[in-house]
Specification:
Chain lengths: 109, 117
């Protein structure tokens, strides 16, 4: 079993829908990252969380440390949100990140 | 905000030659940089962790002599693919940690597409 599991692996929705992507992990962490990878390959760091909730524009990320679970929400989704969303955790006191397998999101107009 | 610049974004090289990819942190000092490889529709695979002024730490299965990593300054790490072969064709991407703490934000470069012909 992977240390970081994302669901769903693929998600297709219509423009305007509320999107939720989930991430569960099984190790102790110092921080959890949500990343966005566009078809061209570049990766943008959306959030880094160690507790609670963060919001940036239409994006909201939450984390429940006790349940070892995080969610990424997109409100009023738009075709430009189409990308692969990756959850990654930094293990406690470790340098490197452990990645989930990614969620491929497609928003149709 | 902090930016990590990677160069070149695309490179085509002949089989048997070497190619160097640069990763620069533009407005912060990065004591630690990470090099990843990604095949189409697959997850990022960590190749090595690069610490400024010391030897890189390679992941299991990654050939040190083939993928040379140099982190000579706090703002620059390079990955050299030596004696490249078509199977080395892939997307290579770096990331850099701002500061020393493991809880510090990690920033990613734009990635480099390598094609070996």
């Amino acid at each position: 079993k992977n240390e970081v599991e994302q669901s769903p692996q693929n998600l297709t929705a219509q423009e305007g829908e509320f999107i939720t992507i989930n991430c569960s992990y099984s190790v102790g962490i110092s921080a959890l990252h949500w990343l966005q990878q566009h078809p061209g390959g570049g990766i943008v760091s959306l959030f880094m969380l160690s507790s609670g909730k963060k919001k940036h524009g239409r994006l909201i990320a939450t984390i429940n440390i006790q349940e070892k679970h995080s969610s990424l929400h997109i409100t009023a989704s738009h075709p430009r949100d189409s990308a692969v969303y990756i959850c990654a955790v930094g293990r406690w006191r470790a340098q490197k990140l452990v990645f989930g397998q990614g969620t491929r999101l497609t928003i149709n107009p | 905000g902090a930016v990590v610049s990677q160069h070149p974004s695309r490179v085509i090289c002949k089989s048997g030659t070497s190619v160097k990819i640069e990763c620069r942190s533009l407005d912060f000092q990065a004591t630690t940089m990470f090099w990843y490889r990604q095949f189409p529709k697959q997850s990022l695979m960590l190749m090595a962790t690069s610490n400024e002024g010391s030897k890189a730490t390679y992941e299991q299965g990654v050939e040190k002599d083939k993928f040379l990593i140099n982190h000579a300054s706090l703002t620059l790490s390079t990955l050299t693919v030596t004696s490249a072969h078509p199977e080395d064709s892939s997307f290579y991407i770096c990331s850099a940690r701002a500061g020393l703490g493991v809880g510090n934000t990690i920033y990613f470069g734009e990635g480099s597409w390598l094609t070996v012909v």
